[in-house]
Amino acid sequence: ITKYYRRYIKTYSLTFFTNYYYLCFNNPHVVLLLLIARLPACVQFQHLPSQDRESSGPDSRDIKMYECSKGSFHCRTKVGASGSEVPRIKLSNGAEMPAIALGAYLGFDQNGIIRPREHNLRDVIVRAIDVGYRHFDTASIYETEAEVGQAVRLKIAEGAVHRHDIFITTKLWNTQHRRDQVVSSLKESLKKMGLSYVDLYLMHWPIGLNEDYSYSDADYMETWRGLEDAQWLGLTRSIGVSNFNQDQLQRVIVEGSIKPVALQIEQELVDFAQRQGIVVMGYSPFGSLVKRFGVKLPGPQIDDSTLVEIAKKFNKTTPQVVLRWLV
Question: Is residue 11 part of a domain?
Fold first, then answer.
């Protein structure tokens, strides 16, 4: 996987970041923040006393704040105390996507993809639901779909939420790009999650691979038609793409039967996607939070000396400064 990422980045001059902080752009004049927290650093939560809670002014809600007290970095995440407080973005097909999400990607090391340990990930997602998260982002390659499903089913069984309250995004991996593989791959993801459908199914990358990670001859339009099959079968409510460039996206719009409702890419395609009525989900706006084995990634922007100075001046964290500027 590491070898493939390096080759892909070299070929397409893309920057691949490994933790998720999403921004959702639904309209040229409004930017809504969709925060995806990196999970390994948030395996234990500590409720902060009221005097330590941030106030955002007279219009701020009564919120809960939790501090991640284990892992490779410390962060504070604030979310509305109830699901109804989380803003939702309307997609082009009428579906609504919560603008605050929790990503279930744990990264990779010298041994490959990092897999969840015991019930850590499941417990994090359970707590996330308790504090207001309603959108969870996973993928076949992350190998965390089972834990996402376990947590969601647990909270549904408790009566805390209904299935329609939760928005689940997962992604098709590159080795399943033939049309006849797409539906079976999504069915396998649903089996792992113990769910009958997902809310958004994305083509993770436009390039297909063989099992040995050599490039396959599967065209991404063939793959897209497989995603359309999955939506027509009711296995996913919406479909979209990730890491596509403008030419690739334009081809899907022109040749496909269903227009993508969402696109996960970098800033330069935002204007084009908005003109097409496609919600853009841009990830990692301040780089990688932690170092990754064997991959040359940009350093964590939260450690940038200028940002640290600004954060101290206003008594905020560096992520708060960056995300506020982006919004």
Answer: no
Helix axes 120-131, 145-158, angle to 10 degrees: 50
Q: How many domains does the chain have?
A: 1
Q: Which long-range contacts (CB under 8 A, 24 or more apart) does 110-118 make?
A: 110/293, 110/294, 112/1, 113/1, 113/141, 113/142, 113/143, 114/40, 115/143, 115/144, 116/143, 116/144, 116/147
Q: Pull the structure tokens for residue 130.
A: 């308790």
Q: Say how many C-beta atoms besides its own lie within 10 A of residue 154's C-beta.
A: 15
**Residues involved in catalysis:** 142
Question: What's the CA dihedral at 157, 160, 261, 236 to 10 degrees?
Answer: 10
Cβ count within 10 A of residue 47: 12
Q: Considering the domain boundaries, does residue 106 fall inside one?
A: yes
How far apart, in whole angstroms, are the C-alpha atoms of residue 33 and residue 291? 24
In a domain, 243, yes or no: yes
Is residue 303 assigned to a domain?
Answer: no
3-state secondary structure of 284: coil
Sign of CA dihedral 84, 25, 233, 213: negative
Pairwise CA distance, residues 12 & 14, whole Å = 5
CATH code for position 190: 3.20.20.100
Query: What CA–CA distance (Å, rounded) separates 167 from 88?
Result: 10
Residue 276 domain boundaries:
18-287
Going residue by residue through the chain, which has 327 residues, state the pLDDT in tens, using 9 for 90 and above: 444 433 433 333 222 222 333 333 333 333 333 333 333 333 333 333 333 333 333 332 332 323 333 322 233 334 444 444 678 999 999 999 998 788 898 877 778 888 888 789 999 999 999 999 999 999 999 999 999 999 999 999 999 999 999 999 999 999 999 999 999 999 999 999 999 999 999 999 999 999 999 999 999 999 999 999 999 999 999 999 999 999 999 999 999 999 999 887 766 788 888 889 999 876 666 665 555 544 555 556 677 888 899 999 999 988 788 777 766
- Six-digit token pair at 189? 């993801």
